[in-house]
Design goal:
The complex is a heterodimer of chains A (196) and B (388).
Chain A: E1 9-12, H1 16-28, E2 34-37, H2 43-50, E3 54-58, H3 64-68, E4 81-83, H4 90-99, E5 101-106, H5 111-159, H6 163-177, H7 181-194
Parallel strand pairs in A: 1-2, 1-3
Antiparallel strand pairs in A: 3-5, 4-5
Helix pairs in contact in A: 1-5, 4-5, 5-6, 5-7, 6-7
Chain B: E1 4-9, H1 16-23, H2 26-29, E2 33-38, H3 42-51, E3 56-60, H4 61-69, E4 78-87, E5 89-93, H5 95-104, H6 112-128, E6 135-138, H7 144-155, E7 165-168, H8 171-179, E8 185-189, H9 192-198, E9 203-207, E10 216-223, H10 224-229, H11 231-249, H12 254-262, H13 271-279, E11 281-283, E12 290-292, E13 297-298, H14 309-321, H15 329-338, H16 341-348, H17 374-379
Parallel strand pairs in B: 1-2, 1-3, 6-7, 6-8
Antiparallel strand pairs in B: 3-10, 4-10, 4-13, 5-8, 5-9, 11-12
The chains are: A alpha/beta (196), B alpha/beta (388).
Amino acid sequence: MGAETSPKIVIVDESPIRAAILEEGLREAGFTDVVHISEMHSLLARIYTADPDVILIDLENPSRDVLEQMFQVSRAVRRPIAMFVDQSDAASIQASVDAGVSAYIVDGLKKERIKPILDLCISRFNAFSKLQDELERAKSALEDRKIIDRAKGILMKLKGLTEDEAYVLLRSTAMREKKKIGEIAQSILTASELLK
Amino acid sequence: MTQPLRIGFIPLVDAAALIVAVDKGFTAREGLDVTLVREVSWSNVRDKLNLGLFEAAHLLAPVAIASSLGLGHVKVPIVAPFNLGLNGNAITVSPALHAAIMGELTGDRFDPMATAQALARVVAARRKAGADPLTFGMTFPFSTHNYQLRFWMAAGGVDPDEDVRLVVLPPPYMVDSLANGHVDAFCVGAPWNSVAVDSGVGHILHFVSDILVRAAEKVLAARQDWAEQNADVLAALVRALGQAADFIEEPNNRAEAAAILGRPERIAVKAEVIQRTLDGRLKISPDGTFRESDRYLLVGREGAARPDPVQAAWLYAQMIRWGQTGFSPAALALSKAVFRPDIYDAALGNGHQTRAVSEAIGAFDGPPFDADDIPAHLGAFPIGRRGK
Protein backbone atom coordinates (compact mmCIF):
# COMPACT_ATOMS: atom_id res chain seq x y z
CA MET A 1 0.00 0.00 0.00
CA GLY A 2 1.46 3.36 -0.98
CA ALA A 3 1.45 6.28 1.41
CA GLU A 4 -1.05 8.23 -0.69
CA THR A 5 -3.57 5.50 -1.43
CA SER A 6 -6.64 4.93 0.68
CA PRO A 7 -6.36 1.86 2.92
CA LYS A 8 -8.67 -0.97 1.95
CA ILE A 9 -11.36 -1.40 4.58
CA VAL A 10 -13.57 -4.44 5.06
CA ILE A 11 -16.80 -4.05 7.05
CA VAL A 12 -18.09 -7.34 8.48
CA ASP A 13 -21.69 -6.66 9.45
CA GLU A 14 -24.92 -8.61 9.04
CA SER A 15 -26.94 -5.39 9.38
CA PRO A 16 -27.15 -3.87 5.89
CA ILE A 17 -28.39 -0.50 7.19
CA ARG A 18 -25.59 -0.01 9.71
CA ALA A 19 -23.01 -1.16 7.16
CA ALA A 20 -24.40 1.37 4.65
CA ILE A 21 -24.27 4.19 7.21
CA LEU A 22 -20.67 3.32 8.04
CA GLU A 23 -19.64 2.88 4.43
CA GLU A 24 -21.14 6.25 3.50
CA GLY A 25 -19.27 7.94 6.35
CA LEU A 26 -16.00 6.36 5.32
CA ARG A 27 -16.46 7.41 1.69
CA GLU A 28 -17.31 10.98 2.70
CA ALA A 29 -14.10 11.05 4.74
CA GLY A 30 -12.15 10.01 1.66
CA PHE A 31 -11.79 6.30 2.37
CA THR A 32 -13.02 5.08 -0.97
CA ASP A 33 -11.84 1.49 -0.91
CA VAL A 34 -14.53 -0.15 1.24
CA VAL A 35 -15.92 -3.68 0.97
CA HIS A 36 -18.95 -4.90 2.92
CA ILE A 37 -19.13 -8.60 3.85
CA SER A 38 -22.55 -9.67 5.14
CA GLU A 39 -22.25 -13.42 4.58
CA MET A 40 -20.55 -15.21 7.50
CA HIS A 41 -19.98 -18.51 5.72
CA SER A 42 -16.29 -18.90 4.75
CA LEU A 43 -15.63 -15.52 6.32
CA LEU A 44 -11.85 -15.92 6.43
CA ALA A 45 -11.70 -16.89 2.75
CA ARG A 46 -13.79 -13.82 1.89
CA ILE A 47 -11.49 -11.60 3.94
CA TYR A 48 -8.36 -13.07 2.35
CA THR A 49 -9.89 -12.51 -1.09
CA ALA A 50 -10.68 -8.88 -0.25
CA ASP A 51 -7.12 -8.52 1.12
CA PRO A 52 -7.90 -5.57 3.45
CA ASP A 53 -5.66 -3.33 5.51
CA VAL A 54 -8.37 -2.75 8.10
CA ILE A 55 -11.26 -4.93 9.24
CA LEU A 56 -14.23 -3.53 11.18
CA ILE A 57 -16.67 -5.92 12.87
CA ASP A 58 -19.57 -5.36 15.25
CA LEU A 59 -19.36 -6.87 18.73
CA GLU A 60 -22.70 -8.63 18.43
CA ASN A 61 -21.27 -10.80 15.68
CA PRO A 62 -20.20 -14.28 16.91
CA SER A 63 -17.78 -14.40 13.96
CA ARG A 64 -15.37 -12.16 15.85
CA ASP A 65 -13.85 -15.41 17.09
CA VAL A 66 -13.25 -16.47 13.49
CA LEU A 67 -11.05 -13.40 13.01
CA GLU A 68 -8.86 -14.51 15.92
CA GLN A 69 -7.64 -17.28 13.66
CA MET A 70 -5.88 -14.69 11.50
CA PHE A 71 -3.31 -14.21 14.24
CA GLN A 72 -2.41 -17.88 14.22
CA VAL A 73 0.50 -19.48 12.45
CA SER A 74 -1.24 -21.05 9.51
CA ARG A 75 -0.50 -21.73 5.91
CA ALA A 76 -3.62 -19.76 4.96
CA VAL A 77 -2.18 -16.50 6.29
CA ARG A 78 -0.09 -14.59 3.80
CA ARG A 79 0.88 -11.83 6.13
CA PRO A 80 0.56 -11.21 9.83
CA ILE A 81 -2.41 -9.24 11.06
CA ALA A 82 -2.43 -7.59 14.44
CA MET A 83 -5.24 -6.16 16.44
CA PHE A 84 -5.28 -2.40 16.49
CA VAL A 85 -6.09 -2.09 20.14
CA ASP A 86 -3.09 -2.39 22.41
CA GLN A 87 -2.39 -1.34 25.97
CA SER A 88 -1.68 2.29 25.01
CA ASP A 89 -5.15 2.77 23.55
CA ALA A 90 -7.35 2.21 26.57
CA ALA A 91 -9.62 5.17 25.76
CA SER A 92 -10.12 4.07 22.15
CA ILE A 93 -10.84 0.52 23.21
CA GLN A 94 -13.39 1.68 25.76
CA ALA A 95 -15.08 3.92 23.18
CA SER A 96 -15.14 1.07 20.63
CA VAL A 97 -16.63 -1.38 23.07
CA ASP A 98 -19.24 1.14 24.19
CA ALA A 99 -20.17 1.75 20.56
CA GLY A 100 -20.18 -1.99 19.87
CA VAL A 101 -17.45 -2.23 17.26
CA SER A 102 -14.02 -3.77 17.01
CA ALA A 103 -11.16 -3.07 14.60
CA TYR A 104 -8.26 -5.14 13.31
CA ILE A 105 -5.38 -3.92 11.17
CA VAL A 106 -2.72 -5.45 9.06
CA ASP A 107 0.63 -5.28 10.77
CA GLY A 108 2.68 -2.35 9.54
CA LEU A 109 -0.13 0.12 8.93
CA LYS A 110 0.60 3.24 10.95
CA LYS A 111 -1.64 3.91 13.93
CA GLU A 112 -2.21 7.56 13.04
CA ARG A 113 -3.77 6.37 9.80
CA ILE A 114 -6.16 4.12 11.68
CA LYS A 115 -7.30 6.57 14.34
CA PRO A 116 -9.61 8.61 12.06
CA ILE A 117 -11.14 5.41 10.68
CA LEU A 118 -11.89 4.07 14.13
CA ASP A 119 -13.19 7.43 15.39
CA LEU A 120 -15.51 7.67 12.42
CA CYS A 121 -16.62 4.12 12.92
CA ILE A 122 -17.41 4.75 16.59
CA SER A 123 -19.43 7.87 15.82
CA ARG A 124 -21.38 6.13 13.03
CA PHE A 125 -22.10 3.13 15.24
CA ASN A 126 -23.34 5.47 17.95
CA ALA A 127 -25.43 7.35 15.40
CA PHE A 128 -26.96 4.07 14.27
CA SER A 129 -27.87 3.10 17.87
CA LYS A 130 -29.45 6.52 18.37
CA LEU A 131 -31.40 6.12 15.14
CA GLN A 132 -32.61 2.73 16.33
CA ASP A 133 -33.67 4.16 19.70
CA GLU A 134 -35.56 6.97 17.98
CA LEU A 135 -37.25 4.49 15.68
CA GLU A 136 -38.31 2.42 18.69
CA ARG A 137 -39.64 5.52 20.43
CA ALA A 138 -41.52 6.66 17.32
CA LYS A 139 -43.01 3.19 16.97
CA SER A 140 -44.21 3.12 20.55
CA ALA A 141 -45.58 6.70 20.28
CA LEU A 142 -47.56 5.66 17.21
CA GLU A 143 -48.78 2.60 19.06
CA ASP A 144 -49.84 4.81 22.02
CA ARG A 145 -51.76 7.12 19.71
CA LYS A 146 -53.71 4.25 18.21
CA ILE A 147 -54.61 2.99 21.68
CA ILE A 148 -55.60 6.47 22.88
CA ASP A 149 -57.83 6.96 19.83
CA ARG A 150 -59.61 3.69 20.48
CA ALA A 151 -60.03 4.49 24.21
CA LYS A 152 -61.44 7.91 23.29
CA GLY A 153 -63.93 6.19 20.99
CA ILE A 154 -65.08 3.90 23.81
CA LEU A 155 -65.49 6.82 26.26
CA MET A 156 -67.39 8.89 23.67
CA LYS A 157 -69.79 6.03 23.03
CA LEU A 158 -70.34 4.94 26.64
CA LYS A 159 -70.44 8.33 28.33
CA GLY A 160 -71.74 10.47 25.47
CA LEU A 161 -68.64 12.69 25.50
CA THR A 162 -67.13 14.75 22.70
CA GLU A 163 -63.67 13.78 21.49
CA ASP A 164 -62.08 16.67 23.40
CA GLU A 165 -63.92 15.78 26.62
CA ALA A 166 -62.84 12.14 26.28
CA TYR A 167 -59.22 13.21 25.90
CA VAL A 168 -59.42 15.57 28.91
CA LEU A 169 -60.88 12.73 31.00
CA LEU A 170 -58.04 10.41 29.94
CA ARG A 171 -55.42 13.03 30.66
CA SER A 172 -56.77 14.03 34.09
CA THR A 173 -57.10 10.38 35.11
CA ALA A 174 -53.51 9.75 34.02
CA MET A 175 -52.31 12.73 36.06
CA ARG A 176 -54.26 11.66 39.13
CA GLU A 177 -52.99 8.06 38.91
CA LYS A 178 -49.46 9.19 38.04
CA LYS A 179 -49.51 7.03 34.91
CA LYS A 180 -49.00 7.61 31.20
CA ILE A 181 -52.08 8.38 29.10
CA GLY A 182 -51.22 5.33 27.01
CA GLU A 183 -51.42 3.11 30.10
CA ILE A 184 -54.84 4.49 31.10
CA ALA A 185 -56.07 4.06 27.53
CA GLN A 186 -54.78 0.48 27.50
CA SER A 187 -56.65 -0.32 30.74
CA ILE A 188 -59.85 1.05 29.21
CA LEU A 189 -59.37 -1.23 26.18
CA THR A 190 -58.66 -4.21 28.44
CA ALA A 191 -61.69 -3.48 30.62
CA SER A 192 -63.93 -3.09 27.62
CA GLU A 193 -62.67 -6.43 26.20
CA LEU A 194 -63.45 -8.11 29.54
CA LEU A 195 -66.92 -6.60 29.75
CA LYS A 196 -67.91 -7.49 26.21
CA MET B 1 -24.25 -6.20 49.82
CA THR B 2 -20.91 -5.58 48.16
CA GLN B 3 -20.29 -3.77 44.90
CA PRO B 4 -22.34 -5.09 41.99
CA LEU B 5 -20.49 -7.73 39.96
CA ARG B 6 -20.88 -8.19 36.22
CA ILE B 7 -19.92 -11.66 35.06
CA GLY B 8 -19.81 -12.63 31.39
CA PHE B 9 -20.72 -16.06 30.07
CA ILE B 10 -21.24 -17.93 26.83
CA PRO B 11 -24.45 -20.02 26.68
CA LEU B 12 -22.92 -23.47 27.19
CA VAL B 13 -23.72 -26.19 29.73
CA ASP B 14 -20.31 -25.82 31.38
CA ALA B 15 -21.43 -22.39 32.64
CA ALA B 16 -23.78 -24.43 34.87
CA ALA B 17 -22.16 -23.71 38.24
CA LEU B 18 -22.07 -19.99 37.50
CA ILE B 19 -25.67 -19.75 36.29
CA VAL B 20 -27.06 -21.91 39.10
CA ALA B 21 -25.02 -19.97 41.69
CA VAL B 22 -26.79 -16.79 40.63
CA ASP B 23 -30.26 -18.07 39.73
CA LYS B 24 -30.61 -20.33 42.81
CA GLY B 25 -29.54 -17.44 45.03
CA PHE B 26 -26.22 -18.87 46.29
CA THR B 27 -24.41 -15.65 45.34
CA ALA B 28 -27.08 -13.48 47.00
CA ARG B 29 -26.75 -15.55 50.17
CA GLU B 30 -23.02 -14.78 50.12
CA GLY B 31 -23.94 -11.09 50.00
CA LEU B 32 -23.06 -10.69 46.33
CA ASP B 33 -25.04 -8.70 43.79
CA VAL B 34 -24.24 -10.49 40.51
CA THR B 35 -25.52 -9.68 37.04
CA LEU B 36 -24.80 -12.34 34.42
CA VAL B 37 -24.14 -10.98 30.94
CA ARG B 38 -24.63 -13.36 28.03
CA GLU B 39 -22.02 -12.88 25.30
CA VAL B 40 -21.75 -14.04 21.70
CA SER B 41 -18.00 -14.59 21.34
CA TRP B 42 -14.98 -15.55 23.43
CA SER B 43 -13.25 -12.47 22.04
CA ASN B 44 -15.94 -10.30 23.62
CA VAL B 45 -15.69 -12.12 26.95
CA ARG B 46 -11.91 -11.78 26.98
CA ASP B 47 -11.92 -8.11 25.94
CA LYS B 48 -14.63 -7.06 28.39
CA LEU B 49 -12.86 -8.90 31.21
CA ASN B 50 -9.56 -7.26 30.27
CA LEU B 51 -11.13 -3.80 30.06
CA GLY B 52 -12.83 -4.08 33.43
CA LEU B 53 -16.36 -4.15 32.01
CA PHE B 54 -16.65 -7.56 33.68
CA GLU B 55 -15.29 -8.34 37.13
CA ALA B 56 -15.21 -12.05 36.28
CA ALA B 57 -16.10 -14.38 33.43
CA HIS B 58 -16.81 -17.93 32.30
CA LEU B 59 -13.72 -18.41 30.15
CA LEU B 60 -11.94 -21.04 28.09
CA ALA B 61 -9.08 -22.28 30.29
CA PRO B 62 -6.47 -21.77 27.51
CA VAL B 63 -7.63 -18.17 26.96
CA ALA B 64 -6.93 -17.41 30.63
CA ILE B 65 -3.38 -18.70 30.11
CA ALA B 66 -2.88 -17.02 26.71
CA SER B 67 -4.08 -13.72 28.15
CA SER B 68 -1.64 -14.00 31.07
CA LEU B 69 1.20 -14.74 28.63
CA GLY B 70 0.13 -12.06 26.12
CA LEU B 71 -0.37 -14.58 23.30
CA GLY B 72 -2.59 -13.57 20.40
CA HIS B 73 -3.71 -10.44 22.20
CA VAL B 74 -3.05 -7.89 24.92
CA LYS B 75 -1.21 -9.24 27.97
CA VAL B 76 -3.49 -9.11 30.99
CA PRO B 77 -2.67 -11.36 33.98
CA ILE B 78 -5.66 -13.54 34.85
CA VAL B 79 -6.36 -15.80 37.80
CA ALA B 80 -8.60 -18.87 37.73
CA PRO B 81 -9.67 -19.78 41.27
CA PHE B 82 -12.48 -22.15 40.28
CA ASN B 83 -12.70 -24.76 37.54
CA LEU B 84 -16.25 -24.59 36.14
CA GLY B 85 -15.98 -27.89 34.31
CA LEU B 86 -13.76 -30.84 33.43
CA ASN B 87 -14.30 -32.48 30.01
CA GLY B 88 -17.74 -31.89 28.51
CA ASN B 89 -16.78 -31.58 24.84
CA ALA B 90 -17.42 -34.10 22.10
CA ILE B 91 -16.33 -34.68 18.52
CA THR B 92 -19.28 -34.88 16.15
CA VAL B 93 -18.91 -35.95 12.52
CA SER B 94 -21.22 -35.81 9.51
CA PRO B 95 -23.05 -39.01 8.55
CA ALA B 96 -20.79 -39.31 5.47
CA LEU B 97 -17.55 -38.98 7.44
CA HIS B 98 -18.95 -41.29 10.11
CA ALA B 99 -19.62 -43.98 7.49
CA ALA B 100 -16.15 -43.48 5.99
CA ILE B 101 -14.41 -43.81 9.37
CA MET B 102 -16.49 -46.85 10.34
CA GLY B 103 -15.61 -48.41 6.97
CA GLU B 104 -11.90 -48.10 7.72
CA LEU B 105 -12.14 -49.00 11.41
CA THR B 106 -10.24 -51.94 12.83
CA GLY B 107 -10.92 -52.14 16.54
CA ASP B 108 -13.31 -50.60 19.03
CA ARG B 109 -15.23 -47.58 17.74
CA PHE B 110 -14.85 -45.85 21.11
CA ASP B 111 -11.07 -46.35 21.08
CA PRO B 112 -9.66 -43.00 19.92
CA MET B 113 -6.50 -44.61 18.53
CA ALA B 114 -8.61 -46.90 16.33
CA THR B 115 -10.73 -44.01 15.01
CA ALA B 116 -7.71 -41.71 14.52
CA GLN B 117 -5.97 -44.40 12.45
CA ALA B 118 -9.19 -44.92 10.49
CA LEU B 119 -9.34 -41.16 9.91
CA ALA B 120 -5.76 -41.29 8.58
CA ARG B 121 -6.84 -43.91 6.02
CA VAL B 122 -9.88 -41.82 5.03
CA VAL B 123 -7.64 -38.77 4.60
CA ALA B 124 -5.16 -40.77 2.49
CA ALA B 125 -7.93 -42.16 0.29
CA ARG B 126 -9.38 -38.68 -0.25
CA ARG B 127 -5.99 -37.30 -1.21
CA LYS B 128 -5.51 -40.14 -3.70
CA ALA B 129 -8.94 -39.41 -5.18
CA GLY B 130 -8.14 -35.70 -5.43
CA ALA B 131 -10.92 -34.75 -3.02
CA ASP B 132 -10.81 -31.57 -0.91
CA PRO B 133 -9.23 -31.96 2.53
CA LEU B 134 -11.69 -32.59 5.36
CA THR B 135 -12.68 -29.50 7.38
CA PHE B 136 -12.97 -29.60 11.19
CA GLY B 137 -14.66 -26.83 13.16
CA MET B 138 -13.50 -25.75 16.61
CA THR B 139 -14.35 -22.78 18.79
CA PHE B 140 -11.20 -20.71 19.23
CA PRO B 141 -7.46 -20.89 18.51
CA PHE B 142 -6.75 -21.02 22.27
CA SER B 143 -9.34 -23.65 23.11
CA THR B 144 -9.41 -27.12 24.53
CA HIS B 145 -11.46 -28.08 21.45
CA ASN B 146 -8.57 -27.12 19.17
CA TYR B 147 -6.03 -29.08 21.24
CA GLN B 148 -8.28 -32.11 21.74
CA LEU B 149 -9.01 -32.44 18.02
CA ARG B 150 -5.33 -32.05 17.19
CA PHE B 151 -4.17 -34.50 19.88
CA TRP B 152 -6.63 -37.13 18.68
CA MET B 153 -5.96 -36.97 14.93
CA ALA B 154 -2.18 -36.58 15.29
CA ALA B 155 -2.08 -39.82 17.31
CA GLY B 156 -3.38 -41.61 14.23
CA GLY B 157 -0.85 -39.91 11.95
CA VAL B 158 -3.02 -37.05 10.63
CA ASP B 159 -1.19 -33.71 10.63
CA PRO B 160 -3.86 -31.14 11.60
CA ASP B 161 -2.08 -28.33 9.75
CA GLU B 162 -1.18 -30.24 6.59
CA ASP B 163 -3.71 -33.02 6.05
CA VAL B 164 -7.01 -31.38 7.04
CA ARG B 165 -8.38 -27.87 7.61
CA LEU B 166 -9.11 -26.66 11.12
CA VAL B 167 -11.37 -23.62 11.22
CA VAL B 168 -12.80 -21.52 14.01
CA LEU B 169 -16.59 -21.66 14.04
CA PRO B 170 -18.83 -19.99 16.62
CA PRO B 171 -20.76 -22.73 18.48
CA PRO B 172 -24.23 -21.49 17.39
CA TYR B 173 -23.14 -21.94 13.73
CA MET B 174 -21.72 -25.45 14.19
CA VAL B 175 -24.85 -27.48 13.53
CA ASP B 176 -25.88 -25.53 10.40
CA SER B 177 -22.35 -25.71 9.05
CA LEU B 178 -22.32 -29.49 9.49
CA ALA B 179 -25.76 -29.78 7.88
CA ASN B 180 -24.84 -27.79 4.78
CA GLY B 181 -21.42 -29.40 4.38
CA HIS B 182 -19.24 -26.39 5.26
CA VAL B 183 -17.52 -28.59 7.81
CA ASP B 184 -17.22 -32.38 8.01
CA ALA B 185 -16.84 -32.53 11.77
CA PHE B 186 -16.49 -30.35 14.83
CA CYS B 187 -15.40 -30.39 18.43
CA VAL B 188 -17.62 -28.31 20.71
CA GLY B 189 -19.18 -28.31 24.15
CA ALA B 190 -22.74 -29.08 25.17
CA PRO B 191 -25.45 -28.73 24.04
CA TRP B 192 -24.33 -28.43 20.39
CA ASN B 193 -23.29 -32.07 19.82
CA SER B 194 -26.69 -33.24 21.06
CA VAL B 195 -28.45 -30.63 18.92
CA ALA B 196 -26.62 -31.98 15.84
CA VAL B 197 -27.57 -35.57 16.65
CA ASP B 198 -31.19 -34.62 17.37
CA SER B 199 -31.46 -32.84 14.03
CA GLY B 200 -30.08 -35.90 12.29
CA VAL B 201 -27.03 -34.18 10.80
CA GLY B 202 -24.28 -35.66 12.96
CA HIS B 203 -22.95 -38.63 14.93
CA ILE B 204 -21.03 -38.15 18.17
CA LEU B 205 -17.78 -39.99 17.47
CA HIS B 206 -16.02 -39.32 20.78
CA PHE B 207 -16.54 -37.78 24.15
CA VAL B 208 -13.33 -35.90 24.90
CA SER B 209 -13.03 -38.05 28.00
CA ASP B 210 -12.04 -40.83 25.53
CA ILE B 211 -9.01 -38.69 24.63
CA LEU B 212 -8.10 -37.22 28.03
CA VAL B 213 -9.37 -38.57 31.35
CA ARG B 214 -9.25 -35.10 32.93
CA ALA B 215 -9.23 -31.92 30.86
CA ALA B 216 -9.75 -28.47 32.40
CA GLU B 217 -12.39 -26.90 30.19
CA LYS B 218 -13.81 -23.58 31.44
CA VAL B 219 -12.68 -21.58 34.43
CA LEU B 220 -14.01 -18.70 36.42
CA ALA B 221 -11.55 -15.99 35.41
CA ALA B 222 -10.79 -12.65 37.05
CA ARG B 223 -8.09 -10.05 36.46
CA GLN B 224 -5.21 -10.63 38.83
CA ASP B 225 -5.16 -7.02 40.08
CA TRP B 226 -8.92 -7.06 40.72
CA ALA B 227 -8.63 -10.43 42.49
CA GLU B 228 -5.91 -9.08 44.78
CA GLN B 229 -7.88 -5.94 45.63
CA ASN B 230 -11.14 -7.83 46.17
CA ALA B 231 -9.99 -11.04 47.80
CA ASP B 232 -13.06 -11.26 50.07
CA VAL B 233 -15.50 -10.76 47.20
CA LEU B 234 -13.72 -13.39 45.12
CA ALA B 235 -13.73 -15.84 48.05
CA ALA B 236 -17.48 -15.31 48.48
CA LEU B 237 -17.99 -15.94 44.77
CA VAL B 238 -15.91 -19.14 44.92
CA ARG B 239 -17.99 -20.34 47.88
CA ALA B 240 -21.22 -19.67 45.97
CA LEU B 241 -19.86 -21.56 42.95
CA GLY B 242 -18.87 -24.45 45.22
CA GLN B 243 -22.42 -24.64 46.58
CA ALA B 244 -23.84 -24.50 43.05
CA ALA B 245 -21.51 -27.28 41.85
CA ASP B 246 -22.57 -29.47 44.80
CA PHE B 247 -26.21 -28.74 44.02
CA ILE B 248 -25.81 -29.70 40.35
CA GLU B 249 -23.92 -32.92 41.13
CA GLU B 250 -26.75 -34.19 43.36
CA PRO B 251 -28.75 -36.40 40.94
CA ASN B 252 -32.09 -35.40 42.54
CA ASN B 253 -31.41 -31.76 41.62
CA ARG B 254 -30.49 -32.35 37.98
CA ALA B 255 -33.96 -31.67 36.57
CA GLU B 256 -34.21 -28.37 38.42
CA ALA B 257 -30.68 -27.38 37.40
CA ALA B 258 -31.43 -28.25 33.76
CA ALA B 259 -34.62 -26.18 33.87
CA ILE B 260 -32.72 -23.17 35.23
CA LEU B 261 -30.00 -23.52 32.58
CA GLY B 262 -32.49 -23.96 29.76
CA ARG B 263 -34.20 -20.59 30.32
CA PRO B 264 -34.30 -18.24 27.32
CA GLU B 265 -31.96 -15.69 28.92
CA ARG B 266 -29.42 -18.39 29.86
CA ILE B 267 -28.63 -21.26 27.47
CA ALA B 268 -32.03 -21.25 25.74
CA VAL B 269 -32.13 -24.97 24.95
CA LYS B 270 -34.66 -27.60 26.04
CA ALA B 271 -34.04 -28.72 29.63
CA GLU B 272 -34.14 -32.37 28.56
CA VAL B 273 -31.16 -31.88 26.21
CA ILE B 274 -29.21 -30.12 28.96
CA GLN B 275 -29.97 -32.84 31.46
CA ARG B 276 -28.52 -35.46 29.11
CA THR B 277 -25.14 -33.73 29.32
CA LEU B 278 -25.32 -33.28 33.09
CA ASP B 279 -26.20 -36.97 33.45
CA GLY B 280 -23.54 -38.04 30.94
CA ARG B 281 -26.09 -40.02 28.96
CA LEU B 282 -26.03 -38.80 25.38
CA LYS B 283 -27.78 -39.80 22.22
CA ILE B 284 -24.84 -40.35 19.88
CA SER B 285 -26.58 -41.29 16.67
CA PRO B 286 -29.72 -40.08 14.88
CA ASP B 287 -30.95 -43.71 15.03
CA GLY B 288 -31.41 -43.25 18.80
CA THR B 289 -28.32 -45.05 20.13
CA PHE B 290 -27.37 -43.75 23.58
CA ARG B 291 -23.97 -43.86 25.24
CA GLU B 292 -23.27 -43.30 28.92
CA SER B 293 -20.11 -42.10 30.58
CA ASP B 294 -19.49 -41.04 34.14
CA ARG B 295 -16.71 -38.80 32.81
CA TYR B 296 -18.65 -36.79 30.23
CA LEU B 297 -18.84 -33.51 32.16
CA LEU B 298 -17.63 -33.09 35.74
CA VAL B 299 -19.03 -30.07 37.58
CA GLY B 300 -17.33 -30.35 40.93
CA ARG B 301 -17.33 -34.09 41.64
CA GLU B 302 -13.98 -35.90 42.00
CA GLY B 303 -12.35 -32.59 42.88
CA ALA B 304 -13.14 -31.21 39.41
CA ALA B 305 -13.71 -27.66 40.61
CA ARG B 306 -10.29 -27.31 42.27
CA PRO B 307 -7.90 -25.72 39.76
CA ASP B 308 -4.96 -28.00 39.02
CA PRO B 309 -1.75 -26.26 37.86
CA VAL B 310 -0.74 -29.47 36.06
CA GLN B 311 -3.74 -28.90 33.78
CA ALA B 312 -2.48 -25.38 33.06
CA ALA B 313 0.97 -26.79 32.24
CA TRP B 314 -0.58 -29.32 29.84
CA LEU B 315 -2.49 -26.57 28.01
CA TYR B 316 0.69 -24.49 27.78
CA ALA B 317 2.46 -27.55 26.35
CA GLN B 318 -0.20 -27.79 23.62
CA MET B 319 0.41 -24.15 22.68
CA ILE B 320 4.07 -25.04 22.20
CA ARG B 321 3.33 -28.27 20.33
CA TRP B 322 1.18 -26.42 17.80
CA GLY B 323 3.48 -23.45 17.31
CA GLN B 324 1.45 -20.81 19.16
CA THR B 325 4.43 -19.98 21.36
CA GLY B 326 7.91 -21.24 22.29
CA PHE B 327 8.96 -22.93 25.51
CA SER B 328 10.39 -20.95 28.39
CA PRO B 329 10.58 -21.94 32.07
CA ALA B 330 9.29 -18.46 33.03
CA ALA B 331 6.19 -18.81 30.80
CA LEU B 332 5.58 -22.29 32.20
CA ALA B 333 5.67 -20.90 35.74
CA LEU B 334 3.32 -18.06 34.72
CA SER B 335 0.90 -20.53 33.11
CA LYS B 336 0.77 -22.74 36.18
CA ALA B 337 0.26 -19.72 38.41
CA VAL B 338 -2.95 -18.81 36.52
CA PHE B 339 -4.68 -21.78 38.17
CA ARG B 340 -5.13 -20.88 41.83
CA PRO B 341 -5.96 -23.84 44.09
CA ASP B 342 -4.80 -21.68 47.03
CA ILE B 343 -7.73 -19.26 46.56
CA TYR B 344 -10.08 -22.22 46.13
CA ASP B 345 -8.78 -23.89 49.31
CA ALA B 346 -8.92 -20.69 51.35
CA ALA B 347 -12.55 -20.17 50.32
CA LEU B 348 -13.78 -23.75 50.52
CA GLY B 349 -11.32 -25.27 52.92
CA ASN B 350 -10.78 -28.68 51.36
CA GLY B 351 -7.22 -28.58 50.18
CA HIS B 352 -6.07 -32.11 49.59
CA GLN B 353 -4.69 -33.40 46.34
CA THR B 354 -5.81 -37.01 46.17
CA ARG B 355 -4.39 -38.00 42.81
CA ALA B 356 -0.88 -38.70 41.69
CA VAL B 357 0.35 -36.06 39.22
CA SER B 358 0.76 -38.69 36.49
CA GLU B 359 -3.01 -39.28 36.56
CA ALA B 360 -3.81 -35.61 36.23
CA ILE B 361 -4.31 -35.71 32.44
CA GLY B 362 -4.62 -39.34 31.39
CA ALA B 363 -4.12 -38.91 27.64
CA PHE B 364 -4.71 -41.99 25.47
CA ASP B 365 -1.50 -41.51 23.49
CA GLY B 366 2.13 -40.91 24.47
CA PRO B 367 3.91 -41.08 27.81
CA PRO B 368 2.28 -39.72 31.00
CA PHE B 369 2.42 -35.93 31.04
CA ASP B 370 5.54 -34.52 32.70
CA ALA B 371 4.99 -30.86 33.66
CA ASP B 372 8.62 -30.66 34.82
CA ASP B 373 10.10 -31.46 31.43
CA ILE B 374 7.76 -30.26 28.71
CA PRO B 375 10.34 -30.20 25.87
CA ALA B 376 11.23 -33.85 26.50
CA HIS B 377 7.57 -34.78 26.87
CA LEU B 378 6.67 -33.13 23.56
CA GLY B 379 9.60 -34.92 21.92
CA ALA B 380 7.57 -38.12 22.23
CA PHE B 381 5.00 -36.77 19.72
CA PRO B 382 6.21 -36.87 16.10
CA ILE B 383 3.59 -34.48 14.66
CA GLY B 384 3.70 -30.83 15.73
CA ARG B 385 4.80 -27.31 14.78
CA ARG B 386 7.45 -26.84 17.48
CA GLY B 387 10.04 -24.26 16.51
CA LYS B 388 8.61 -23.87 13.02
